[in-house]
Design goal:
The structure is a single chain. The chain is mainly beta. Among the domains are: 71 residues, Immunoglobulin-like (Sandwich); 93 residues, Immunoglobulin-like, CATH 2.60.40. It is 14% helix and 41% strand. It has two helices and 15 strands. Strands 2, 3, 5, 6 and 7 form a five-stranded antiparallel sheet that branches. Strands 11-8-14-15 form a four-stranded mixed sheet, with no helix packed on it. The N and C termini lie far apart (89 Å).
Length: 241
């Protein structure tokens, strides 16, 4: 086992080089041209290894995808990668990227999409330059829900209004204006208030206010107004939004 301290070992290892460097001028002064040629042929050179070679791009940092409005349009953003001159963005329906598609290729650090079908999609990006392609970024995902539209309900019945969309859900609305997000398609609904109920249909279009409906209670005609209104039928007046 070598018990020489590290500092001493370093000194011993460098000593021959120091001696050679010190003796070279004297040898050159006393030697013949042939000796100088021999020394020149046996000079020692130290190789330099550069870090980050070849200089391919670093991995970009891809940002979480914001699709808070839950529609079929969104953007994918990432930060510039060191040494990258362009980027490749992959999209797949699984996080293993077993069947990726190139969703974007170019110099920008953003790619926007619209008209995406419902489902979950995964994205990753990497930079490239003349030396080659860099490593992939981390993976991010986005969910596109089933298409939906907005039904605007104006409750002017003077009390709570309960609306059942057959095959979907039931909601109760106090007096005032309300927006209800529903699946795209034609739905049958039943609305009930203190004055009665009605059944009708509505058609919901994708990603927009499709229908605006005012619900109010029509009073029956009373022969004696001093006695007040009697219960009348519920009326729903719908118009395209």
């Amino acid at each position: 086992m070598n018990t020489t301290p590290r500092s001493q070992a370093t000194l011993i290892a460098l000593l021959p080089l120091v001696i050679v460097a010190a003796l070279l001028p004297m040898v050159s002064a006393q030697s013949s041209p042939a000796a100088e040629t021999s020394l020149a042929r046996h000079r020692l050179y130290m190789a330099m290894v550069r870090k980050n070679y070849p200089p391919i791009p670093a991995a970009p940092a891809i940002q979480p995808i914001d699709n808070g409005d839950g529609d079929d349009a969104y953007c994918v953003d990432w930060s510039p990668a060191e040494r990258a001159t362009s980027y490749t963005l992959h999209e797949d329906d699984n996080p293993q990227f077993s069947s990726p598609a190139t969703a974007y290729s170019g110099r920008q650090t953003r790619a926007c999409f619209n008209g995406k079908a419902p489902g979950t999609r995964y994205y990753r990006v990497r930079g490239r330059n003349a030396w080659g392609e860099g490593p992939w970024s981390q993976t991010v995902s986005v969910v596109v829900p089933s298409p939906w539209g907005i039904w605007v309900i104006q409750n002017d019945t003077g009390g709570d209004l309960t609306v059942e969309v057959i095959g979907y859900e039931t909601a109760t609305f106090p007096p005032g204006r309300h927006e209800w997000r529903l699946p795209v398609g034609t739905h049958t609904f039943k609305a009930s208030a203190w004055c009665g109920s009605l059944t009708d249909t509505i058609t919901i279009l994708p990603y927009q206010v499709s229908v605006e409906t005012q619900f109010l209670c029509q009073p029956a005609v009373c022969p004696d107004w001093a006695e007040g209104w009697t219960k009348g039928p519920l009326d729903g007046s719908a118009g395209a939004g």
